[in-house]
Amino acid sequence: MKFIDLFSGIGGFRLALEKSKFECVFSADNNKYACETYNKNFKEYPLIDIKKLSAKKIPNHDILCAGFPCQPFSIAGKRKGFDDTRGTLFFDIVRILKEKKPKVFILENVKGLISHNKGKTFKKILNILSKKFNGNINKSNRENLGYNVFWKVLNSTNFNIPQNRERVFIIGFTDQKINFEFPKSLKLKYTLNDIIKIKPKKIRRISKLSKGYIDKHLRKHKSYNKIKNLNYLVANEVRKSRCNFRFDNISPCLTTKMGTGGNNVPYLVNQNRFYTLEECLLIQGFPKSFKLTNNYTEALKQIGNSVSVPVINSLVQQIKKKIK
Ligand SMILES: C[S@@+](CC[C@H](N)C(=O)[O-])C[C@H]1O[C@@H](n2cnc3c(N)ncnc32)[C@H](O)[C@@H]1O
């Protein structure tokens, strides 16, 4: 089975599909730092702008994977959706699906996509992909794609990954008879404590001023006495006016915002340090041996943008049961 890795980022999809012995025949991402990381791990530098890519140039494949850029749909963003040109990258996926007709597609996006524009955006996406679509991508493109479509929000914590990361997955099959079942939740046996007990060589600390904010918010916290000494007490999005704490041995969601500075990397309060890049990778289910670009802020963005690899592993296992 052959697959393509669109909006490939650092290759979270690729790691999972290759583990299942699928062969990657094409990758594309227009960010040179993401390509640098990709190249270090997969010996390929897929610098391609998908908007300018002719679908005819893509090799034939069985599975199309795409975690398409989520900024236009994320709740954190300005909710521009399809009005934002980046949002229209979805239509590039449609264009490619139409030309290549792979047996299966796996799309991933932020959960906010479902409620965006009162659910209209998501409905439009599902309609375009499935049988019912009757909209117009443009005049020459009116038919629907006719896929047998399934979707679900999956949280990484349900796949033995200690991160509260909810993402929507849309899976489509050309075979209309398939009744796809999303993977069942697994018990969380691997916790944040397992990851942070590995003592890092190089650490980064928050400014004194921000550390003061953490301490002030912590003292006011209703569970202060219970949580103050926990090894895995995490402060996230530290601001003067607010600070989120997480103390259930599960990490807050790692987002691309981590790369924008401003205390957006989760902070281990009792170790007085930010997560390291290695910890961020493990919290996304990447192997320890995974190599990143040397650009720290770009590396943080890349990890926040990626998929949790074990979630894709489980999805692929389910897909494998349905396709020949
Ligand atoms: C949400 S991330 C996907 C991450 C990926 N699934 C992974 O496992 O790392 C979206 C990616 O789309 C890329 N991108 C955005 N616009 C693009 C375009 N026009 N052509 C190709 N890639 C693009 C970004 O650079 C980013 O790496």
Can you walk through the features of this model?
- The chain has 324 residues and is an alpha/beta fold.
- It folds into two domains: 2-186 and 309-322, Rossmann fold (3-Layer(aba) Sandwich), CATH 3.40.50; 192-303, Alpha-Beta Complex (DNA Methylase, Chain A, domain 2).
- The chain has eleven helices and ten strands.
- The chain has helices at 12-19, 32-42, 89-100, 112-115, 120-129, 192-196, 208-220, 224-227, 277-283, 296-305, 309-322, and strands at 2-6, 23-28, 63-67, 104-110, 148-155, 166-173, 234-236, 244-246, 267-268, 273-274.
- The strands form two sheets. It has a six-stranded mixed sheet. Strands 8-7-9-10 form a four-stranded antiparallel sheet, with no helix packed on it.
- The longest helix is centred in the last third of the chain and has 14 residues, at 309-322.
- 42% of the residues are buried.
- The model has no long low-confidence stretch (mean pLDDT 91).
- Bound molecules: S-adenosylmethionine (SAM).
- S-adenosylmethionine binds next to helix 1.
Number of helical stretches of at least 4 residues? 11
Average predicted confidence as pLDDT: 91
Proportion of residues in extended strands: 15-25%
Radius of gyration from the CA trace? 20 Å
User: What's the order of the H and E elements?
Assistant: EHEHEHEHHEEHHHEEEEHHH
CATH fold label of the largest domain: Rossmann fold
Main sheet strand line-up: 2-1-3-4-6-5
The CATH architecture of the largest domain would be 3-Layer(aba) Sandwich
- Note the main sheet: 6 strands, mixed
